[in-house]
Amino acid sequence: ITCHKVVPLADQTFWTSLLGKGYPAPTRSFRWCTERMKIDPVSDFIKSKVSQFDEVIVVLGSRSQESASRAQVIAKHKIDGSRLARHTTLSNAFIYTPIDTWAVDDVWKILRLCHLETKQTP
Fold first, then answer.
1. 3-state SS of the chain?
2. In sequence order, what are the beta bridge partners of 56?
3. Which residues pair with 93 in a beta bridge?
4. Is the pLDDT reported for residue 56 higher than 90?
5. How does strand 56-59 pair with strand 93-96?
6. CA atoms of 57 and 50, how far apart (whole Å)
7. What is the residue extent of each domain of the chain?
8. Which long-range contacts (CB under 8 A, 24 or more apart) does 53-58 make?
9. What gap in Å lies between CA 54 and CA 37, rounded to an integer?
10. Measured distance CA(34)–CA(26) in Å, rounded
């Protein structure tokens, strides 16, 4: 497994959009930042890897208990008899969600056991 940090293009960052382009702060009904800063950069990266390797498996930390809609999406795209799911929009990209059955307490338990180093932001 290789991890990659994916970031939006410089002209699509939060601060460029908010301060430079005058976008309003995101709200529940107007979440412009989700697609621009997360979905688009990740989709572009996945597409580049699919064109390079024909198929890819994306590992996500999605959990069914996050919300009813998240549980529906996870269940809807699961491949029968497999731990993989089909990507909702990208063909030849498969999703592996190793913690999809975990409760939030399980996540925090593991994080505490890992003794992760935290850094203060200025």
1. CCCCCCCCCHHHCHHHHHHHCCCCCCCCCCCHHHHHHHHHHHHHHHHHHHHHHCCEEEECCCCHHHCHHHHHHHHHHECCCCCEEECCCCCCEEEECCCCCCCHHHHHHHHHHCCCCCCCCC
2. 93
3. 56
4. yes
5. parallel
6. 9
7. 1-54, 55-122
8. 54/92, 55/92, 55/93, 55/94, 56/92, 56/93, 56/94, 57/84, 57/93, 57/94, 57/95, 57/96, 58/87, 58/93, 58/94, 58/95, 58/96
9. 25
10. 9
C-alpha to C-alpha distance for 91 and 67, rounded to whole angstroms: 25
Place of tokens 């030849």: 92
**Structure-block tokens of residue 51:** 């064109």
What are the structure tokens assigned to 80, written together? 């029968």
Average pLDDT over residues 44-64: 95
What is the amino acid identity at position 115? H
Mean pLDDT computed over every residue of the chain: 92
Residue 80 one-letter amino acid: D
Task: Categorize the per-residue pLDDT at 120 as very low, low, confident or very high, splitting at 50, 70 and 90.
Answer: confident
What's the pTM? 0.78
For range 51-67, the mean pLDDT: 95
**Residue 71 token pair:** 């549980």
